[in-house]
What does this fold into?
Amino acid sequence: MKGINMQRLIISDITLRSSKDSAYSFKEKIEIVRQLDNVGVDIIETAPISNTKTDVLFLHTIAPIVKNSVISCPVGLTKDSLAIAWNAIKNARRPRLHVMIPTSTVQLEYICHKKPNAAFDLVKQLVSEARSLCSDVEFSALDATRSESEFLCSMVNAAIAAGATTVTLCDTAGTMLPDEFAGFVKEAYENVPALKNINLAVECSDSMSMGVACSIASVNAGACQIKTCVGSEDAPSLEAIAYMLKMRGDSLGVSNSLNQTVISRTISGISSFTDSRKSKSGIDVASSGDAGQEISVSSKDDIKTVAEAVRMLGYELNEEDTAKVYENVQRVATKKPIGAKELDAIVASSAMQVAPTYTLKSYVINSGNIITATANIDLEKNGAIVSGISTGDGPIDAAFRAIEQIVGHHYELDDFQIQSVTEGREAMGEALVRLRANGKLYSGKGVSTDIIGASVRAYINALNKICFEQ
It folds into this structure.
């Protein structure tokens, strides 16, 4: 039974902030935000604004979508970047500006290219400016555990004096043991009495699989906010933290806002984007590998049956994505029944895609050991059929060249992979295509019993992401 003096533990998720390579599509990032808001995390931390056009558009898009969570945006290291961040999130229901500055000598030189005195002035300037714009301001002392104690305390005091409402101590290296980190937090309280007047947060790397233990130890030492993540070692697993709080939250004397009834489904959905099916903290994330082996659908099944099978795998799809999955199930199932592995692969390639600019209608490939490979591709764009014919060094190269002929542009092929996702003569093949455009990578997946068809679909998938963001 929960006691009357339960402390409210704030959960801040850094999944989007930790995705340094920005591998998610625009729509995938929006869906991740929806999922995190739905599961009840208190704060959703976004990545720093690097591309003013697309990143600001993303923040403008999610501002009205997020109903409950705080949207936290890093402000960069200049007044100009701070102003851009504020203008991007100021219409959110609960905006937060996040000042992130290293406090260790090594990180200061490497990230900020500043000496300690200059960094001290920068903290005061940025936090003060942020607080003049927003009532909720967080200061994160990056690499705090490897900082000189006196300098760390001076930086934290400066941030609080300038108006920070939350201070985060980061074990960026992830080398501390739980008892050591708890002692570090207690020492911070002793050396900076002003910490008792604001929220003290911690961010523990999970590189040694100690993130959960260190975070909980910090709560016992007085921290009231912890950072979590899905699919990265930058912070402890959201699912592991949720499970721990479910089992031992009462004994710790803390409550939280996480919706435990949907946590596994939510993690499963986000993990399908991050390609991380297992948390570093040792708790399995829901996957299709166990109970899902009994799942089977065929071409005779209706859309409700397919939707239920998808739900059993742990996915929560909207009507549009369900229809796309059903369409691909019908296409593949004409050759053989589809089990859990096949269905999981179809969901990965069909759901959570951007609105297609190009849709594959047909393809004809001629190839042999005594002829040059040729490809004839028909795509649909805006209701019209557009065709391309090309030769190439092999059938897949010819197909890609035919698509480029249709589009009228050559994109650098950064990576191309083919792998079997099931066994047997009628095995399904999965193709991964990565295209580079304007310095960014766009990935696409295709699944089919025909590996050329899988490759063509993967290329078009990546191409549509490029078209969507341009």
Notes: Confidence is low (pLDDT under 50) at residues 275-293. The two ends are 54 Å apart (CA to CA). Residues 291-350 form one domain.
